[in-house]
Automatic annotation (TrEMBL):
Record InterPro entries: AAA+_ATPase, ABC_transporter-like_ATP-bd, ABC_transporter-like_CS, Mo/tungstate-bd_C_term_dom, ModC_ABC_ATP-bd, Molybdenum_import_ModC, Mop_domain, P-loop_NTPase
Domain ABC transporter: 1-231
Keyword Glycoprotein: no
Domain Mop as annotated: residue spans: 290-355
Name by which UniProt lists this protein: Molybdenum ABC transporter ATP-binding protein
PANTHER family: ABC TRANSPORTER I FAMILY MEMBER 10 (PTHR43514)
Length: 355
């Protein structure tokens, strides 16, 4: 898949000047409220007409001077924050409504696979009013998938759900990604969702793209981490479940080396992601002794980035880049400079299931 987006649109309160490419997989769009995320995906879907620009999907021009393909001819599935199901139709009919717009409607096996993947089999005869918010969102995702889209847009699909429902539905989205579903443009305020799902990250602020690139690289990059803000920066590593030990620990093989976590109820060989937030990584000049931390890794400083609050230190650890957030006082005491050897002490490592 290739999506190229470049457009301008002036509103009374904001001028949008958006330019990004989405190469395939899941591309997350992240940024503060009102920065133009929804407007950007609406321009791709054909729900917002730019003042000027060009939008191209898989070589087909969706928008350009003299071209403005209507939404129903763009072959884009859209999942909104609220499910927007037809209240008078049962789940099966809502799902099949999606297929009406497919130029090559899904065969019964594909329909059955989508129903199975989203756990909709038990719900087919129910009306939307009798479904939970999470169930309604699963139906909305199924309906969008059955329209055989070239691209799926999800705009804050979990935002209206409570934490329990969010946790329930996220595995369906990771499964969709793992099953090689259509490429997805995923708008979200929640970096935890993005860390579980996305391959690429687009950061926006005040109507513009401020960073675009692979997600893992952005999270471990001091400049992008500051744009993301808060305490969301830190490495995201692919990992494989490698060993369960007799003393209830699990070893994971990662590009940063082997890491030990409390026993994870996952099969050997399973692929997961690990999120190591910058403020969970301490640094030491020498190999620390007598520490309870399970994971202490030899590292080399790549760059030191001072900001208004913390100092962000990017580290090379094995084949991976990690980020550590420390105080200016600690950075000075450790005399950190590019190339300096040190030890990274990982206080917490979060395991994210991705399949
Ligand atoms: N139809 C419109 N008419 C006028 N202004 C609009 C319109 N649509 C969007 N805007 C302006 O564009 C800004 C960006 O809106 P948009 O919904 O794209 O932001 P967002 O990043 O998705 O925000 P949120 O995270 O709160 O959903 C809005 O604050 C508003 O000022």
């Amino acid at each position: 898949m290739s999506l190229q987006v470049a457009f301008r649109r002036r509103f009374a309160g904001l001028s949008l000047d958006v330019d990004f490419d989405a190469p395939g997989g899941v591309t997350a769009i992240y940024g503060p409220s009102g920065c133009g995320k929804t407007s950007s995906v609406n321009a791709v879907a054909g729900l917002l007409t730019p003042d000027a620009g060009r939008i191209e999907l898989n070589g087909q021009t969706l928008f350009d001077a003299g071209v403005n393909l209507p939404p129903n001819r763009r072959r884009i599935g859209y999942v909104f924050q609220d499910a927007r199901l037809f209240p008078h139709m049962n789940v099966a009919k809502n799902l099949d409504y999606g297929a009406r717009f497919a130029p090559d409607p899904p065969d019964p096996a594909t329909r059955a696979r989508v129903i199975d993947m989203l756990g909709l089999g038990e719900l087919l005869t129910r009306r939307p009013a009798g479904l939970s918010g999470g169930e309604r969102q699963r139906v909305a995702i199924g309906r969008a998938l059955l329209s055989s889209p070239q691209l799926l847009i999800m705009d804050e699909p979990l935002a209206s759900l409570d934490p329990a429902r969010k946790a329930e539905i996220l595995p369906y989205l990771t499964r969709l990604r793992a099953a090689g579903g259509p490429p997805i443009l995923y708008v979200s305020h929640a970096m935890s969702e993005i860390a579980a799902l996305a391959d690429h990250l687009i950061l926006m602020a005040e109507g513009r793209v401020t960073h675009a690139g692979p997600l893992a690289g952005a999270l471990a990059d001091p400049v992008a981490a500051r744009l993301i803000g808060g305490s969301e920066g830190g490495a995201l590593l692919p990992a494989t479940i490698a060993e369960h030990s007799a003393d209830d620990l699990t070893r994971l093989d990662t590009p940063a080396g082997a890491l030990w976590l409390p026993r994870a109820p996952l099969a050997l060989g399973e692929q997961v992601r690990l999120r190591i937030l910058a403020h969970e990584v301490m640094l030491s000049g020498d190999h620390p002794q007598g520490l309870s931390a399970l994971n202490v890794l030899p590292a080399q400083v790549v760059q030191v980035s001072s900001g208004a609050d913390k100092v962000l230190v990017q580290l090379q650890v094995g084949q991976a880049r990690l980020l550590s957030a420390i105080t200016a006082r600690s950075a000075q005491a450790l005399a950190l400079a590019p190339g300096a050897p040190c030890f990274a002490i990982l206080k917490t490592v979060a395991l994210i299931q991705t399949g």
